[in-house]
What does this fold into?
Amino acid sequence: MMKVYLKQPFQAEQFDGSNEMIDKYELIDAGTMLGTHHSPELYLTGSGKVDGGDWIATGVNGEHWAVTGDVFKKTHAELPVVPHYVAEYINYMKSSYRDIWDAINYPFRSNNINKYMEDNSETFARAWLDGYQVEGHK
It folds into this structure.
């Protein structure tokens, strides 16, 4: 068996059962699929049944898939949250074609960046590798 990870962050939204979300994700009910009557069971085309509390994920090509709430919580985490100055530093280093080694060993970092990286090295590495959210911009 091979272990793998998702290389690209994706968006996910917890299904609340609202008509807006049913329309947004074009969910269909079991009765319509069978040509009988309407049913409270909703399905996401190509992904299966969706219940309230499940998560609907959107891939890089706009495709959707459903993940049950328990499985989602066990296997997914939000992107790390970093201050705006850390986001600017990561963007600057990457736009200058530098790698993470350069970012860690860059001699001209500000004191704020030095302090952040000392106190949050794993969060910085995760943000560099997987992406991040900026504080206050969820």
Observations:
- Residues 11-75 form one domain.
- Strands lie at 11-14, 28-29, 42-44, 48-50, 55-58, 64-67, 81-82, 133-134.
- The first strand starts at residue 11 and ends at 14.
